[in-house]
Amino acid sequence: MKKLSVVEIHDAIKKHELWLRDQLGGERANFHDCIISEVDVQENDLRYVVFDGARIEDASFVRCNLNETSFNGASIEFTCFSESHISRSDFRNTTITRCSFTHSFIGDSDFKKSHLISTNFSWAEASGIDFAEASLSKAWFCRAKLWHASFVEAFIEIASFSEADLLEADFTKAILNDVAFYNAKLKDTVFDEIEGAKRFS
Questions:
Q1: Contact 117, 137 (CB under 8 A)
Q2: In terms of pTM, does the model score above 0.85?
Q3: If you ran DSSP here, which 8-state letter would residue 26 be given?
């Protein structure tokens, strides 16, 4: 894996912005299998950037446009995505540790088979987010809007959905251990008790 300097990352983002505007000198940013550490790229337009397989540590993506951005197979630690727009983005097979998505806007993004540890989605507004077959440990979704979210066959432990709005969320065949749903809105939420799902509230 190649470790990129802060200067290299910012140069690539500048070229990417030119690419988005179809201007001379533009080039789509591709950080595939790169190491990105201790960098602040907040408030940038990062649509369509490729972070597949990257290792991202101590980064700030606060208030970024991350629509249709790909993090497939990436490892992400101590990184903040708060207040960002994250629609139709690919987080499949990612490992996400001690990250924050608070107050973010997430639509139809794919977190299938991801591994989330101590990650916070509280106050996020999400619709159609897909955590099918994901593993979520110490994940926080307090007061989040999670309409039509899929947690099918997910493993969720020591987590909180307190005061979250789970309209038509699907927990079919999910395993829930020590998961709180205090005052959560559960209109048309699907739970599968047959497969051993457990709800602690």
A1: yes
A2: yes
A3: -
53 touches 73 (CB < 8 A): yes
CB of 90 within 8 A of CB of 72?
A: yes
Per DSSP, the three-state class of 198 is coil
CA distance linking residue 86 with residue 70, whole number of Å: 10
Element spanning 180, H or E: strand 175-180
Distance CA 195, CA 198 (A): 9
- The helix/strand/coil state of 65 is strand
- 105-109: list long-range contacts, CB under 8 Å, 24+ apart: none
CA-closest candidate to residue 88, choices 146, 47, 120, 50:
47
Tens-level pLDDT at each residue, the chain (201 residues): 899 999 999 999 999 999 999 999 999 999 999 999 999 999 999 999 999 999 999 999 999 999 999 999 999 999 999 999 999 999 999 999 999 999 999 999 999 999 999 999 999 999 999 999 999 999 999 999 999 999 999 999 999 999 999 999 999 999 999 999 999 999 999 998 634 344 444
